[in-house]
Amino acid sequence: MESSLDWHGAKALLEWYVELGAVDAVGDVPIDRYGLAEATPAAQKRRAPEPAATSPGPGPVPVAAYHHVAEATALAGAAQDLEALAEAMRGFEGLELKKGARNFVFADGTPGARVMILGEAPGAEEDRMGLPFVGRAGQLLDRMLAAIGLARNHPDATRAVYISNILPWRPPGNRTPTPQEMAMMVPFVRRHIALADPEVLILMGNTPCGALLGRAGILRMRGNWTQAEGRPVMPMTHPAYLLRNPAAKREAWADLLEIQAKLKETP
Ligand code: URA
Predict the structure, then answer these.
(1) 1 or 114: which carries more pLDDT confidence?
(2) CA angle 103, 105, 106 (to 5 degrees)
(3) Cα gap 99→36, rounded to integer Å
(4) Candidate of 102, 108, 120 to mutate for ligand 1, largest count of ligand atoms within 8 Å of Cβ
(5) pLDDT tens figures, 12-32
(6) How far does the chain reach from its first CA to its final CA, in angstroms?
(7) The whole model's pTM is what?
(8) Could you tell me the distance, in angstroms and rounded to a whole number, from the CA of residue 181 to the centre of ligand 1?
(9) Long-range pairs for 59-64 at CB < 8 Å and ≥24 separation?
(10) CA of 134 to the centre of ligand 1 (A)
(11) What are the structural domain ranges in the chain?
C-alpha cells in the first residue's frame, strides 16, 4: 500500500506509537517473512527442483521438531556448567523465535541459590534488556520475594533467588509458547535446573507446569507442593495474572508463606 507519509512523518508516527506503548508491528494479515526470502528470484534459482508429486500431509515441521529435540538433549547433556549451557542454548537453531528476538534471555539472580523460579518466556522489556522478569510482572515478582525476605542478589546467599524461563527468546506479541517450542527447550531447562541445583523450584503459571509436570490448570495446582526434577516444586499463579486479578494476591501470599516455611525446615 502506498503511503502519503515522508520519512520524517513516518518516524514521528512510529515514535508516537511507541509513546502509546506499542511494542510490536503486526499487520492485519500474517506475512511469512522467512518464506519471502525463499521466494526471491535468486533463492528460487538456487532451490533444487521439486519432486514431481508432493504428498499432502503435515509436512516436515514435526519431523524437524523431533530432530531438534534430540539435538537439544545432546547439547544440554554435554554442558558441564551454567556458562556452557548458556552458550549451547544461544547457539541452538531449532527455534524460529530466535530470529525475531532482540536478545537471548538466560537467567538472572544468584546461581546456586536455594530457590529457582521458572516463568514462561521473555516479554517486551525482558527482550530489550536481555534479563528475565524485569517488566511490570517482574517488578511485582521482586516485591513478592521481598515480602518473604528473598531477593535475586541478596547479600545473604541463603536468601538469594535464581530466575529463568522455559523459553529464552520472546514469542512475537507475547503469545503462548507452542508445545513444539516447549518440547525443544525442556531438555535445556532440565539441565539448567540440575546445574543450578536449587532446593526448591517455583513454577510461575501454566507454561512451566505444562513443561515440567506435564499438566496445566494452575488455579487448581497452585499452593500444593509437588515433586519434579528430584526436588519440591511449588506451582504459583504468574505475577502477570496477579496484575490482572489483584484479588488473587491473597492466595499468592499464602503460597509465599508455604515457600518460606519450607525453607525454614532446612536451615
Ligand atoms: N513473564 C515471564 O514468564 N517471564 C519473564 O521473563 C517475563 C514475563
Answers:
(1) 114
(2) 145
(3) 14
(4) 120
(5) 666 655 555 555 665 545 556
(6) 65
(7) 0.78
(8) 16
(9) 61/180, 62/180, 64/94
(10) 8
(11) 53-265
